[in-house]
Amino acid sequence: MKKPFHAITAGGQGHAGSLGRQPQSPPLRQEGWRGVMLAGSGLAALRAGQACTELELVWHDSGGAVGDALVERARQLGCDALHPGEAVAEEQWRLARACARAGLAFIGPREGLVAAMCNDDAMRQLMREARLPLGETSAQAVRVHLPVLADCRGQAVALVEHELLGERFVMAPSERLTPEQRAYLGQLAVQGARSLGLVGLATLSFSLADNRLGFVGMRPGLTGYEGLAEVLTGLDLAVEQIRLVAGERLRRPRVGHMGHGPGRPGQARWRLLPSVAGQLGGGPGVRLDRPYRANAEDEVRLLVWGRDGAEASRRERRALAEWQGSPGRMDGDAVRE
Predict the structure, then answer these.
(1) pLDDT at position 207 over 90
(2) Gap between the Cα atoms of 164 and 205, Å rounded
(3) Per residue in 244-303, pLDDT tens?
């Protein structure tokens, strides 16, 4: 049997003074959190619920409630903590404020830092003070996004960056970066996260223009693209987010069974697909994320990975052919080589 997960308060260590110190989390019972309320539904809450189950935490769905009504539902069900799922920064800020008033632990960055993430200009100023170069903010600029995990002891680790190549297709790592640029990007992300006193999970976004990287924005918590870094590093980001907010120590990525690891990633591809298409046989290097009770209007996330781009592409073609129900045939834009 797994050892039960015990939550520990963060205690405010390592936080930037300009944003205020992390307030003490509500007192937690010796046996750990009694329950966690999940915001959102469907795919937006899927990974958070799976992480709670992995950590042997009782969790409850939102029941359609939002905002203050969601916090009240959490209190009625005896929850100690609230997880914002994949909510945008503005919604996370509102939930963090509501949790503070209600005495609930918020599974995300502290309220002041989430508030700063709602304003790109404010975040850019903070990163300028942290001596990070600032990037191009135009919509035409190439952007890469890098998830970072950090604990309350000031330790942080940058994982594998990803690039959005369309509304429904994302790839990691970006093919635009050299190994030297990738290492530099990781150094910038860790420097920025530590300067802000981040605890938990956040994704930092950078622009790439004329071979120069610069910071452009930051998003708290889960974004929906965590699977890309997970399969290439061996870390479950949803699990690590909860552990770190609860005060646990940072765990470093391990080298996976396919040789993936820091400095030597394979390739992972993420696609958003309609849930009405068909079935997927699975197989090595293939994962499908779908809501527990999917219906016709829902979408699912296809994740494939391999030791290199060629292997990931072959697995993607196989998975898409199965999903579309016509082996060997796909839409013209189904796969980007």
Answers:
(1) yes
(2) 11
(3) 999 999 998 864 433 344 445 699 999 998 876 677 877 899 999 987 766 666 789 999
**pLDDT band, residue 202 (cuts 50/70/90):** very high
User: Helix 237-245 to helix 43-54 angle, to the nearest 10 degrees?
Assistant: 70
Contact assessment for residue 205 and residue 219, using Cβ atoms and an 8 Å cutoff = yes
Half-sphere exposure of 22 (CA within 13 A, CB side): 29
* Lookup: tokens for 130: 């942290």
Does residue 236 surpass a pLDDT of 50? yes
Q: If you search the block for the tokens 């002891």, which residue do you land on?
A: 153
For 197-238, give the DSSP string. T--EEEEEEEEEETTEEEEEEEEES--S-HHHHHHHHS--HH
**How many other C-beta atoms lie within 10 A of the C-beta of residue 189?**
27
Say if residue 173 is preceded by a cis peptide, omega within 30 of 0: yes
8, pLDDT greater than 50: no
CA 178, distance to chain mean position in Å, is: 24
Cα→Cα distances 255→186, 231, 232, Å: 17, 10, 8
Angle 199-216-203 from CA coordinates, rounded to 5°: 30
| 281 contacts 305 by C-beta, under 8 angstroms | no
Mean pLDDT, to the nearest integer, of 135-148? Answer: 92
pLDDT digit string (tens) for 36-52? 999 999 999 999 999 99
Q: Which residues contact residue 260 at a Cβ distance below 8 angstroms, ignoring those fewer than 6 apart?
A: 231, 232, 233, 234, 266, 305, 307
Residues 6+ away with beta carbon under 8 Å from 109 = 117, 198, 199, 200, 202, 220, 221
- Mean pLDDT for all residues in the chain: 84
The sheet that has 142-150: what strands, in order across it?
156-158, 142-150, 200-209, 212-220
Helix/strand/coil for 149: strand
